[in-house]
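Risk register update: the risk that structure generation would not scale has been downgraded. Supporting records follow, first protein first.
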Amino acid sequence: MRKLILQMQMSVDGYVSPANGNIDWQVWGWGDRWAWDDKLKAYFNAVFEGVDTILLSRKIVEEGYLDHWGRAAKNYPANPQFAFAQKVVGAQKVVLTDKLEASRWERTVIARGGLVEEVNALKREEGKNILVIGGVGFASSLVTEGLVDEFQFFVNPMAVGAGRSVFHDQRKGHKLRLLGSVGYECGVVVNRYAPQ
């Protein structure tokens, strides 16, 4: 069975979406500003080697995730630091929503079923792992339903003071098992966890 990997940027104080949306808190965001060091870029590209399906929220595709990385793949076809952009273009993409009639994106299908049913069906398919790219609401829903097999948090060297988390169980919390933690020169620390 394939793993569902939730990958998110996070502040050092544990938020994936700051309360103040104007704070420039990520070492690397969309666009040409890419302040990650070469070793972190290599790690990020290596993650995509083990993935052949990307599960996306409707909001992130409508905000331009697929269009952006499609342009990057065309603009930097031979740049090894952008190898993941080629993987984004070539991967099967699934957008889980009942608000879009049809896909406007290449190699992208719309899944209209329930979250649990659709994700479990994807996990049962043959192939490599599934990477989740989406906002805090989408990610939180996956966490609440116990669908995430691995968390990859790219912890940025910035505290934002307040914001939103993907974890919401205030009665028992969420016990996690550390799979690995590596710090990089740019200040980002990648923490990998599995649910315990």
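Supporting record for the second protein:
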Amino acid sequence: MVAVESCGQWMVFSCDQKLVAVHRTEKREAFVFDCSTAEKRTKSTEDEKLSDGSTQDDSGSDRILALAVSGSGKLLAVTDDSKRLVLFGSEPSWSCISTRWVARRCTALVFSQTEEELLVADKSGDVYSFSVTEPQREGELKMGHLSMLLAVTVSPDNRYIITADRDEKIRVSQLRSPHNIQSFCLGHQQFVSALHINSQHPLWLLSGSGDGTLKLWELERGRRLQSRDLRKAETETESSESQTVSRISSSPDGRHVAVQCERVSTLEVFTLQEEGEEKLVPHSSLRLPHCPLDMTFDLEGRLWVLMDSGDEPLRLYAYEQSSWECDAEDPELNRVTEAFRPHWETLEASVRTHNRFEQLQKSSYDNVSAYLQKKQQRLEEQQLKRTKAQRPNGNKRAKKEASA
């Protein structure tokens, strides 16, 4: 996983096996955590069996799979391919609070709004709750889906947990009693890959999918308010079939929503408005020189974009005079770029070869068209046979009439 997040005054990157945090405004040494040299699981723990009778399999690559930052920016968590779940504190300086172990490899993380628990979604469809206030306590099973979970988020009032899976379902459940399902948001045609709730519209849910659409929902009733097909903005070299929404993020003031699609070199920026039918309004299309790997807003509302380029790994956009402008000379951008550049090589190879959504696309077959084509061919062949059979009879009748 390659990601960038704003954590207070720090910009945090996940670079394959490494977590790198760089301070934006001060000349402080970058914090680097390498999962390949982190705490290993003990033999006794490895031999323990899961509740379903299966054994642990921890032969992972130590590659970071998911990352989450708390709302206050004081906490950060990562999970990796070796099933570690590591909790960090960023103030007054970076420190590792705890290292715990998950039952199965994780796909998404999110902190509760109170920052008392960390919710961990995994590939089997389960969500576990890990205590933040008791950082050594094991996780507890919270809820489950019948399919792999790909995204999870929590409503701003801490009432609902929203989960999305590979089978196009979005479920809104009560956080304190997840067996109580509030609603389903149904309508995507492919796996749901991204969820987001804007801070200024706490009852609206944004979702992105492998079907190339961005949808807006009223989450308590599961009612779809609007749908945007992002594939209309594709270029000649970018296939709409593989256009997957990979990230949705909004500015701290809630005015702007940025949407990123996998391997598409354009970021779409929208605004949200209460009045009128068009609640999700297009604002800008930011054309990038390289494909974006991830993006996020900082505390000042500026948009940071991590790109697939060793020469220019980062771009910074600021909203000025009703438009988004690239600021290549910003001192914070230059400071962060120089501190991050030495770690680029650790992820460059995997970035170019790995597409995390490639195996999730469902193939569709147009059997009806093939059936109709074969049927038409059979009808034409039968008609041809009838025509040939009628010709000899016609010749015999003509001879009889001539002889008469």
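The helical segments are 43-46, 331-340, 345-353, 367-403. On this basis the risk owner (M.S.) recommends closing the item.
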